[in-house]
Amino acid sequence: MGKLIDGKAFANRLCETLAEEVASLKSEKQLTPCIAVVLVGEDPASATYVGAKVKRCEQLGIDSRSHHLDVTTSEEELLSLIDSLNNDPAVHGILVQLPVPKQINSEAVINAISPDKDVDGFHISNVGAMAVGQNNMVPCTPLGSMMLLEDELGDLSGLNAVVVGRSNIVGKPMATLLLQKSCTVTVAHSRTKDLPAVCRGADILVAAVGIPHFVKADWIKEGATVIDVGINRIQDPETGKNRLVGDVDFDAAKDVAGAITPVPGGVGPMTIACLMYNTVAAAKKLSGIA
Ligand SMILES: Nc1nc(=O)c2c([nH]1)NC[C@@H]1CN(c3ccc(C(=O)N[C@@H](CCC(=O)O)C(=O)O)cc3)C=[N+]21
Fold this sequence. Notes:
This protein is α/β, with parallel strands linked by helices.
């Protein structure tokens, strides 16, 4: 069986380092990093994620401000809140939990956030900056996935990386970061011809499609490193209970892969740890601290 990549332990270590940095920013620079988390509506999964983010903030000594808006909130009202958070010097990071209700255009909302407070890294100017190698705020899930890959493999230069999925929040930025590390990058998606064969060429396989158990064991090259970005809630056919599974058929894949991230306990905790990392970085940058 391949090695399990313990994202939860890595995230805990990263957060311990960040907690020390926050403590010294407070005592030496009188700076307390602060993130505003905006949740619109009552989606239970979203509420759980927001809760996890706020809890991590508390552990690290980062201030968090939760804004919970009604599901009927208009785009104008949300934009007005973002404007006030942009102009609040005590707020360093702004995160609007996605998805937002259908009357709100998520693109308009994302691009209304000040790029230097955009701790998700979704603002069009942060996306463009990354495309030309001038990384500012890097999206949390790809950033966390890269940390795990470099910890596992060291130098990624020349490796064949296949990213399955082309979303703006994971697939595309992940491909950009892998290219920055001199991987030979293929972005595969629902129209890709012979996807199993494309995946079999991967030294690094990143699954980010949002379909439970989509990537099969016989798509994986022996010894490959597999990063499973999927967070899918399914009903277990045997126990009838709800459980969390990734985009990779983990039980079979773990015997073929050289190393693989589990779900839960893989990329998910890294996403939240990297949100903390981006918040500390934003606080320092906005305060003129290197
Ligand atoms: N603006 C915005 N930014 C986001 O970063 C964002 C978002 N919207 N909308 C929803 C997704 C989802 N997401 C997760 C983060 C951590 C876990 C996580 O820590 N998962 C745990 C398990 C949690 C559980 O048991 O439910 C794990 O994989 O081990 C999951 C999902 C961030 N998202």
